[in-house]
Amino acid sequence: MFPSNSFGSKFIITDAGESHGPGYVTIIEGCPSGIDLSVEDFLEDLNKRRPGKSKFVSPRDEKDVPIILAGIFEGRTTGAPIAILVNNLNQNSKDYSHLEKTFRPGHADYSYHLKFSHRDYRGGGRSSARQTISRVIGAVIAKKILKSKNISIEVNAFVNKIGPIEYPQPFKIPKSIDPEINAPISIAKEMKESIIGAKKMGDSLGSQVSVIIKNVPKGLGMPFYGSIKALLSYSIFSLPAVTAVEFGSGVNASSMEGSDHNDQMSSNNDNKEVTFESNNHGGILGGISTGEDILINVTLKPPSSISKKQVTINKELQTVDLEVNGRHDPCLGPRFCPIVEAMIHVALINIIE
After folding, report:
1. Helix axes 133-148, 333-349, angle to 10 degrees
2. Does residue 86 sit in helix, strand or coil?
3. Interatomic CA distance for residues 180 and 52, integer angstroms
4. Largest pairwise CA distance in the chain
5. What pLDDT, in 10s, does the model give residues 140-197?
């Protein structure tokens, strides 16, 4: 079985922490020496991920300023493991006292209890999405390493669907994005209204995020178990709340004919470049990158912590009513975008020579 708190084989992230504990520690192995790295390098990406920035995300106001504990000397990496701490400073643990013996429907409360018997119920403890802060920290370093190798992979993610509101061109990067919800300006107002409406009802909304990976080197990945599609799927499914991952045409392939789905090819004899007339294959064939943009749709369930009354059970297996208090995201898509971008960088650096 894979270790559950580490990711990677060459560039390895290991992390520890709970939502309402003192903080999160991230340890990075596999970073070469001589890479310029400072606290300031992390701030932009951590700010994109952090809560408390608008009424469309959790109001928990964490500043998420990293403290470098090891692996950096005189502003550069030494080749030793890098250790980074981010303190939790805005916990309201009392909001979760009613969950000590009660399981939230749709949440990992019950499965963690089955597995470990004793769990940290404050904000979900280890199962909290606050753990994703370590993915973002790892990606900042991964992007630095890629830049040092003159590899310019570009990962773009935006919300293409919230509840019933959907962007018609999920794999076309919008000209402008609403920064509050990371969605195209053209539909952002409707999406915001849907989120506010769900919050007023004590409910939450599901969402979908489009991911477009540009400048991917040709020939990445291997057949079968070394498939880049398998690696990316594994990395994305390691993130909380993901219910589906689709590449290229995704589930729509089931209603297409081969003549429509096949991406016809041509070549330019002058520069020996191969051109695909379409990209239903989503940039990967036989587990290996083709050089086309890698196209991924990620579906996220509605957040399970809602104030609307639900029926559940407690540790004594008694049926009880539950209304969840506390500070929670009403929709996960807006804050998922920087997280999935980070996780993809961490995954790809593990297969790039």
Report:
1. 40
2. strand
3. 11
4. 73
5. 999 999 999 999 999 999 999 999 999 999 899 999 999 999 999 999 999 999 999 9
Domains and CATH numbers, the chain: 6-248+283-349 (3.60.150.10)
CB atoms within 10 A of CB 133: 26
| Length of the chain in terms of residues written | 353
Element (H, E) at 313: strand 310-313
Report how far apart, in Å, the C-alpha atoms of 95 and of each of 24, 120, 302, 307, 321 are: 21, 13, 21, 12, 17
Residue 323 vs residues 6, 13, 120, 160, 197: alpha-carbon distances, Å: 34, 36, 19, 30, 18
Look-up of token digits 């991911």: 211
Q: Sign (positive/negative) of CA torsion 301, 304, 305, 306?
A: positive
The encoded tokens of residue 143 equal 């992007």
335 half-sphere exposure, CB direction, 13 A CA radius: 29
Contact, 297 vs 208, CB < 8 A? yes
Closest CA to 216 of 105, 293, 322: 293
SS3 (DSSP) at 46: helix
**Can you tell me the mean pLDDT for 83-96?**
80
